[in-house]
Amino acid sequence: MKRITLASTFIPFILAMTINTLAQAAERLPTIPPSQYTEEQKKAAEEFLATRKVPVFGPFEPLMYSPQVMTQARAMGDYLRYQSALGTTLSELVILITAREWSQDYEWYVHHPIALKAGIKAEVTAAIADGRRPVGMTEDEEIVYDFSTELHKNKRVSDRTYARAEKRFGNKGIVDMTGINAYYTLLAMQMNVAQYQMPRDGKKLVRFPE
User: Among candidates 88, 72, 41, 33, which has minimal Cα distance to 186?
Assistant: First the structure.
């Protein structure tokens, strides 16, 4: 499975977004200026910078209202985002599926270019954005797509889909894949609640009937 590094993809992308003006929350849970951080928030921000090598950004900004939750979420993401048993390419596929399921524009905005660079085909990401099952997926991508889609839509995974995933990725992979879906659902929920906005050059996902 192809792996991409944080240094080669994520940091440059975040720095570019900073130059282009990072998204700020709307009226709900507005981004807290660092000059107004409490001592707990300062500590959480320092740990974030030391670990991620960038200042607090994106979904972690509204989470800063509860620095303990932010720190725990960041720590979980450190593993699930960069070191999971799925590898970083397939994890990006999971993230896009989750972002689409929650119509989370910022999550898609950040991870779509990373997924393309990691090796996910543009036609696959386009189908996910449209709410269609992609054609031309690799076997691994099909397993991940079926597992993640069933989990989101049916709130469970069928025996057939589970068996394929277990055979390919093992029990650790099953737990990690479930964790990635859950983790990015958490971030999507937080940003949807906060009405967190994309940078000006972002394009919103089409909203599906509810």
Answer: 72
Domain boundaries, the chain: 88-194
Range of 1-10, 176-185, 194-203 with top mean pLDDT: 176-185
d(CA 76, CA 93): 18
Is the pLDDT confidence value at 22 over 70? no
Alpha carbon distance 205, 130 (integer Å): 8
Whether the CB-CB separation of 57 and 22 falls below 8 Å is answered with yes
pTM: 0.86
pLDDT of the residue at 166:
98
Q: What is the rounded CA–CA span in Å between residue 182 and residue 155?
A: 11
**Section 146-169 average pLDDT:** 98
Alpha carbons 51 and 81: distance in angstroms, whole number: 13
Selection from 60, 79, 68 nearest residue 186 by Cα: 60
Range 25-54 average pLDDT: 93
Which of these, 174, 182, 164, lies nearest to 86 by C-alpha position?
Answer: 174
Distances from the Cα of 206 to the Cα of 65, 151, 210, angstroms: 30, 21, 12
3-state secondary structure of 22: coil
